[in-house]
Amino acid sequence: MERWAGSVAFVTGASSGIGEAVVQQLVDSGLKVVGFARRKQLLDQLAKDLSSKKGKFYTYEGDVSKESDVLKAYQWTKENVGPVSIVINNAGAINYSKILESTTEKWRQVLDVNVLGVCISTREAIKHMKENNIDGHVINLNSVLGHKVGSMDGDIYGATKYAVTSLTETLRLELAKENSKIRVTSISPGAVQTETLDKVLELAKLPPGAVSTLAASDIADAIIYVLSAPQSVNVSELIIQVTGEIF
């Protein structure tokens, strides 16, 4: 991770779960990290917790489903921290429902976060990289449900993750045709112990611990692994599951 020391990373959904775990590791590695999330109180507490670390953590309150929030956050980052070298599109949304019992409004909410939010954040990050000749890295938090249809009542969640799989590879090919050195990665975890999973289990009337899970730190470790690969190596897709997971 030495090559990234002092570089700027932009992390969406940074206030808890995988986002919080990866922020901690990036700051430990000496990066300047902008954490973008809706819950300012959690961001502020994380900033206090990381105040003595090697790198520096900056907070930005915003909603990834609102384009104006994302645009303002990237502009603020450029003016106050520096151009973005790494973007980790981690923010996600899920509606626990059957498709035929859902609503158009709920579909839009999930699409705005899981698909359009990724597109907008990626576009703005790559603008920073190209304008400053940065051989950066785009990392999209995907899911095993972006590769195989599951049986859970996840509404259109799986469909949005299939979109992330396609978006990531389409972007990689676009950049390759430009002879760009910007790397693009999709990271697809199985079940991860997060607030979101707790809510899904509650709605499914399943007890805590009913599903074997990865820790958020396991996914953060994988992100560090991908970032640490030589510049000539692009880890395009990484699927991470609990040992013995049947899916």
From TrEMBL:
One of its GO terms (molecular function) is oxidoreductase activity, acting on the CH-OH group of donors, NAD or NADP as acceptor. The lineage of its organism: Eukaryota, Metazoa, Ecdysozoa, Arthropoda, Hexapoda. The keyword Oxidoreductase applies. It comes from the Eukaryota. The keyword Lipoprotein does not apply. This is Farnesol dehydrogenase. It holds the Pfam family adh_short. Signal peptide: none annotated. InterPro entries: NAD(P)-bd_dom_sf (IPR036291), Sc_DH/Rdtase_CS (IPR020904), SDR_fam (IPR002347). It comes from Diabrotica balteata (Banded cucumber beetle). SUPFAM superfamilies: NAD(P)-binding Rossmann-fold domains (SSF51735). Keywords: Oxidoreductase.
